[in-house]
């Protein structure tokens, strides 16, 4: 990196680098020195933008929540109505790269702040699924348990190690979506 590029490195650059690093290498790679080396800058650049490593992790978790939950909800709400909303959400969710999500969940096993954020995101996602199910005609008393089951399937899919069973086709998603909205 050239000096003028280093001078313009932003908080957003650091956070984007942190999310990429976390997804590829896990939480142990989120050391200030390693992150700075990856950006070809000094550690001082990090401390210009963040109070400390904890501040960085909190902002990283907030950005993760914004990108993979809040932004997705807004996009779906703006673009799709009715039962097609569930099918669209399922196609997005079951076909995305979830390496970052797995890394965040692994971090949550040892980091109380991450665990709190993951629990909050999980609850919001389940509530959103229940809302979509209700809007699709599912009785509200049934929507919550169906939403939970769908979410468990989503979370569990990443644990399947056999590639033959870890992919779900769009046709299968259409069928499953119809099953959950009856």
TrEMBL record:
Pfam families: TetR_N (PF00440). The keyword DNA-binding applies. InterPro entries: Homeodomain-like_sf, HTH_TetR. Residues 17-52 form the HTH tetR-type domain. Keywords: DNA-binding. The keyword DNA-binding applies. This is TetR/AcrR family transcriptional regulator.
């Amino acid at each position: 990196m050239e000096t003028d590029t280093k001078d313009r490195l932003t908080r957003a650059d650091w956070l984007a680098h942190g999310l990429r690093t976390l997804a590829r290498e896990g939480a142990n790679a989120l050391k200030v020195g390693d992150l700075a080396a990856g950006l070809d800058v000094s550690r001082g650049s990090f401390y210009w933008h963040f109070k400390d490593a904890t501040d960085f992790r909190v902002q990283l978790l907030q950005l993760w929540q914004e990108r993979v939950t809040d932004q997705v909800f807004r996009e779906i709400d703006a673009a799709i109505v009715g039962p097609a909303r569930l099918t669209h959400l399922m196609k997005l969710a079951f076909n995305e790269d979830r390496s970052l999500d797995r890394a965040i969940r692994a971090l949550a096993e040892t980091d109380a702040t991450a665990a709190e954020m993951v629990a909050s995101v999980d609850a919001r996602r389940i509530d959103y699924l229940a809302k979509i199910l209700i809007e699709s005609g599912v009785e509200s008393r049934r929507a919550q348990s169906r939403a939970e089951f769908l979410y468990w399937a989503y979370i569990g899919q990443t644990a399947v190690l056999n590639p033959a069973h870890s992919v779900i086709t769009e046709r299968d998603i259409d069928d499953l979506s119809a099953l959950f909205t009856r």
